[in-house]
């Protein structure tokens, strides 16, 4: 159901400002509003899929129309509140020999649960202010092009490494959305500030970010895809280039100048359960299913089952030898 401006008791401009303030009070570091328009990258995304750059992630090819148009995913949607939380953490010590590194985003508690709870509270707040409004929340798993929407909402720009970058926080960002039928005042989109920098393009060990095609990630070559999403044997050429990463990869973010002064998060749930941000590979190879469950309880790392983690550990140890 479409919500007409005349039905609202509160001025929509004022409501948009209050909503973003409410988001920050709930712990989100950034908030902006985007119109619920169709994606400008529909043809780009179609080509990306058709050329197989999504690897074996077949779920990305499903619900194509919904992914590229929020109004198909959520009929009646007019506005999207986009939010972001910083997850940058300080590690006590560097990774030691015989350990495998874990991407920062997976070192704490499962971000899906932390962010989803806050999004639902924001949706409740919207409906309290405008009872006729309808809402739907999304964080990572919904068929929503989160980075494009966040850029449209002014939160940051999509960089050459395809990560969303904010000039003050960098790219260590979890994203979330609240879609609503309210016609809220949208923010100005972010401006690309990558400039002539090519650090991420040349730092990627597997060439997933090709210097000839910046802003385009071949996920089938990405280390994060290989050690998380890819379930079978890893091509020996790529296996030799995993660069010590057991779960995920942060290389293209670690070399980004915008992360050089990135602040640390104060969210307790994002603090690392691994003091060095890494796991002992020899111990991991001996984990039982019970140890796996205990060590990774409440972690996003449980997206990968124990046999795949042990596969990754074996590859890294073989490479170190």
Helix/strand layout:
Blueprint: H1 12-25, E1 30-35, H2 42-50, H3 64-67, H4 70-73, E2 79-86, E3 99-102, H5 111-129, E4 135-138, H6 146-152, E5 157-158, E6 164-165, E7 173-180, H7 199-203, H8 223-229, H9 236-239, E8 245-247, H10 251-254, E9 278-280, H11 281-285, H12 289-295, H13 306-320
Parallel strand pairs: 3-8
Antiparallel strand pairs: 1-2, 2-7, 3-9, 4-7, 5-6
Helix pairs in contact: 1-5
Describe this protein's structure:
With 321 residues, the chain is α+β, with helices and mostly antiparallel strands. 32% of the residues lie in helices and 12% in strands. Helix 1 (12-25) runs antiparallel to helix 5 (111-129). The longest helix has 19 residues, at 111-129. The relative contact order is 0.18.
Compact description:
With 321 residues, the protein is α+β, with helices and mostly antiparallel strands. It is 32% helix and 12% strand. It has 13 helices and 9 strands.
Give the strand line-up of the largest sheet.
Answer: 1-2-7-4
Q: So what's the overall shape?
A: globular
**CA gyration radius, whole angstroms:** 20 Å
- Helix-strand topology string: HEHHHEEHEHEEEHHHEHEHHH
Number of helical runs? 13
How many separate domains make up the residues? 1
Class computed from helices, strands and strand pairing: alpha+beta
Average pLDDT level? 94
Give the strand content. 5-15%
Number of strands: 9
Are there runs of 5+ residues with pLDDT below 50, and where?
1-9
């Amino acid at each position: 159901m479409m919500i007409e401006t005349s039905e609202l008791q509160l001025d929509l401009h004022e409501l948009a400002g209050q909503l973003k303030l409410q988001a920050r009070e709930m712990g989100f570091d950034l908030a902006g509003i985007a119109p619920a328009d169709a994606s400008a990258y529909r043809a780009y995304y179609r080509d990306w899929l058709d050329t197989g750059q999504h690897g074996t992630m077949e779920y990305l090819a499903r619900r194509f129309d919904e992914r590229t148009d929020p109004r198909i995913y959520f009929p009646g949607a007019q506005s999207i509140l986009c939010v972001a939380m910083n997850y940058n953490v300080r590690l006590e010590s560097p990774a030691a020999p015989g350990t495998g590194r874990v991407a920062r985003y997976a070192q704490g508690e499962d971000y899906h649960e932390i962010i989803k709870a806050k999004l639902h509270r924001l949706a409740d707040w919207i409906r309290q202010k405008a009872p006729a409004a309808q809402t739907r929340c999304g964080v990572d798993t919904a068929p929503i092009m989160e980075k494009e929407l966040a850029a449209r909402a002014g939160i940051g720009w999509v960089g050459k490494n395809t990560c969303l970058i904010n000039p003050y926080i960098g790219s260590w960002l979890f994203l979330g959305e609240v879609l609503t039928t309210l016609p809220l005042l949208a923010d100005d989109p972010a401006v690309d500030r990558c400039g002539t920098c090519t650090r991420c393009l040349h730092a990627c060990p597997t060439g997933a970010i090709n210097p000839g095609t910046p802003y385009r990630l071949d996920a089938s070559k990405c280390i994060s895809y290989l050690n998380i999403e890819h379930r079978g044997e890893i091509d020996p050429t790529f296996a030799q280039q995993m660069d010590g990463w057991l779960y995920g990869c942060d290389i293209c973010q670690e070399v980004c100048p915008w992360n050089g002064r990135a602040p640390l998060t104060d969210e307790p749930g994002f603090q690392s359960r691994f003091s060095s941000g890494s796991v002992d590979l020899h111990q991991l190879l001996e984990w039982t299913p019970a140890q796996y469950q205990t060590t990774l309880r409440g972690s996003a790392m449980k997206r990968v089952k124990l046999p795949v983690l042990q596969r990754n550990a074996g590859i890294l140890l073989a490479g170190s030898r």
